[in-house]
Amino acid sequence: MKKIIYIFNFTLLLASTISCSGDDSSDTEQTENIGINDSYSVNRLKLLTLSPQSTAESPTTFEWIIQSKTTLKDSVNIKNQQLEFLALYTGAYPVILKITRGNDVFTKQIYIYVTLETPSYSRYISKVYDFFPAVGQFTNTLPEWIAGDSRETMIKKADQTLTGPNPGMISLGGFGGYVIFGFDHTIINIKGKKDFKVLGNAFWSNALPNERGGSSEPGIIMVSYDKNKNGIPDDDWFEMAGSEYYKQETIKNYSLTYYQPQKPETAEVNPTYIKWMDNQGNTGFKTKNQFHSQSYYPEWVNSSSLTYTGTKLQDNYYDLSGNGTNWIGKSYEFGYADNVPNDDDASNIDIDWAVDKYGNKVSLPGIDFIKVYTGVNQEAGNLGEVSTEVTGAYDLHIK
Ligand SMILES: [Ca+2]
Ligand SMILES: [Ca+2]
Ligand SMILES: [Ca+2]
Predict the structure, then answer these.
(1) Whether residues 228 and 371 fall in one domain
(2) 99-151, pLDDT tens digit by residue?
């Protein structure tokens, strides 16, 4: 009995409940098997996962009650067997684990001590994990491909371009081209607040002072957190359901294949340069324009075709002039990369927009990894293909 009171040091009611529920030895075993310590220590913005074990045959429910008022600003999942605890602020966080089994209620007091990291976190991208642009007029130049560069070399070049406080620019090419990057901490999901932004080179057109349009090349943003804690993005991905996600014009599971152009290539303008075909029965060509003469097909790829799959947004470019000389990209309302200027609030992203592959909303404690891919398949006249650029990303909650 003494042992039970020590472990569940919170209520006397509890002790009497236990004494009625069976012989002492089985109760003692039960408490020992929960596998939860009295206290834990963790750096801020690092995920702590607590998984109490349950050997009971009868249905058991778990509830985590976070007592500290400061956690109102932090992200905690409750009413799950597993607690995923992530805090922005340092300090002691009292937590009560409440276990209900039939009429029996057990509680356990836990303290989580959240400590300050050393060295300090960076709010900017710390690592690029993958980079695979689609066909585009800046493919092989942003970043530059040099003869002999492998896929790994190109990922390293994207990493050197995007990491740290003064990032440069990469281009993802046409629909589906992507980059995956991460941070040196978990970007926390604070309720009711935007949590991060992906930077691009979008700008408004002077010709349309009253409209939110100009150069907008929206990229789909996906997020993931390191649930299995191995430091790499091999966990489930969740799409940020931006303003277009639920619209009929938006095509989910869109798949597009580009066909490698014949070699050797010429530098000439070519309106039927690279053939593409999608899974909706459409086909067309990516054009080569007079401004960019290098190959638009990733040079380090030997495959005769490249297929990209994802959510496709409706074409957003239109010709304001009517004679093909002034193409304007309409921005979408929220939730995309390279869609509005970086200083516009609509470039900020709320992790609570995350949905799973079935479109169900999910509640994430935070994110470690971001994937961005070009969301539009359109040729915008003399501007060439619509292609998302990425010029960095940062956590909105740390300076
Ligand atoms: Ca949020
Ligand atoms: Ca992982
Ligand atoms: Ca752009």
Answers:
(1) yes
(2) 988 888 889 999 999 999 999 999 999 999 999 999 999 999 999 999 999 99
For residues 338 and 281, membership in a common domain is answered with: yes
Distance 181 CA to ligand 2 centre (A): 13
Please name the amino acid found at residue 21.
Answer: S
What is the rounded CA–CA span in Å between residue 251 and residue 244?
A: 10
pTM beyond 0.70: the answer is yes
Nearest to 337 by CA among 379, 370, 296: 370
Distance from residue 127's CA to the centre of ligand 1 (Å): 23
Q: How far apart are CA 200 and CA 206, in angstroms?
A: 19
In what helix (H) or strand (E) does residue 224 lie, and over which residues does it extend?
strand 219-224
As a dihedral over the C-alpha atoms of residue 285, residue 142, residue 330, residue 309, rounded to 10 degrees, the angle is: 60
Report if residue 234 sits inside a domain: yes
In the chain, how many domains are there?
Answer: 2
Q: Rounded to an integer, what is the distance from CA 165 to the centroid of its chain?
A: 20
Q: What is the CATH number of the domain that holds 9?
A: 2.60.40.10
Ligand approaching nearest to the C-alpha of 342: 3
Q: Which domain holds residue 105?
A: 2-115
Q: Which two tokens stand for residue 368?
A: 């470690």
If asked whether residues 100 and 223 sit together in one domain, one would say no
> Residue 202 C-alpha to ligand 3 middle, in angstroms?
5
- Whether residue 204 sits in one domain with residue 327: yes
